[in-house]
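User: Hey, quick favor. My workstation is busy. Could you predict this chain's structure for me?
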Amino acid sequence: MKEFEIIELPNGIRVIFKQVPYAKIVHCGYILDTGTRDELDGEEGIAHFWEHMSFKGTRKRSSYQVLSSLEVFGGELNAYTTKEKMWFHASVPEKHTEKAFDVLTDIVFESIFPQKELDVEKGVVLEEISMYLDTPEEYIQDEFEHLMYKGSALGNYILGTPQSVKTFSTKKIKKFVTETVDTKHIVFSIVGNISLQHIHELVNKYIRPIPKHTAIRKRTKHKKKQTPFVIEQERNNNQSHCIVGWPAFSLKDERRLPLFMLSNWLAGPGLTSKLNMILREKKGYVYTVESNYQPFVDAGMISFYFGTDPKYLYKSLDLINKELEALKNKSLGSTQLKQLKEQVLGQMMMAEESLSNLMQMMGKSLLDYNMVESFEEVNDKIQKIKSTDLQEIAQEIFTEDKMSRLILLPS
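Assistant: No problem, here it is.
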């Protein structure tokens, strides 16, 4: 059997499947090429609100029946929204795979968005917005992206604003769904110990009958030049919180892989990342420092976040700048490069051990690139990257004239 099986349906939906003989749980889900960047003025947050409302009733299930449909046998049903994608996914014991197909298809394509439930859910989302505003390490990430892409739909807050959420109605959600969903840009991804024959049976029963649909609304390209900014805000925090970032490569740029490696080297999840060793282990200035490389279809950004006592704020920034300059001026040694490659490949293997992560990676890759690379293919690409490649990318990205900074200071 091939590593991945891909089924292309007449309605445009593609199904990707990987059989894992040892798995007891099946992970599956729909990924849609729709997100907050597809919202118009006044719709900010409506994609995320649709995600919430998909659980509030369909043509054949009440809200309670949706919520309990998989939970009754220990399964999970969930969803999330990003700037460019929406995920509706489930994890169930293998014998309940058909139920997962049924429920997921029902909430994605047959939700009715009842006004009574909608009015209640507005309060839930408004509380979610308040929760984010009260969490500085999360608020600053959203605010930084909003400022980085100001004037573009990419800058929309995923949750929306209190003002926009209050205007949502059944009619408004249905309009957004009708105008943005395109079955040619939907993938259903499955990982589990199921036979290919059974997959075909379930696909023919639940996914093939979905009517073909073409999006009316076309996603506008991001053409706005990102203007650097330096902003300080006072908030009722105990710590100073800071993000410093730069425009970066898009999903379609071949340099995204070496940039991801650089991000990992500087402040990835490992405790031995350069900035963690300097800011936390050596100086004791921060509890955590994190990197975030976020590529979009036609834009991208890389940033570093840390929280610290106000007296260490600018000392920490100086140390980050010093390390970036060192990276630009001197390439990694052969031992450092080998260690970085092994670290990144190891993290990939660890991520694939989570079959839920693997299912989502497969779906996103097929949607974005029309293919899924094997681990061996990615390994070959990583092994070809030279230390001078990383140095040249650092020199191109980490320039002072392109740098933006957002700081939250204790009031």
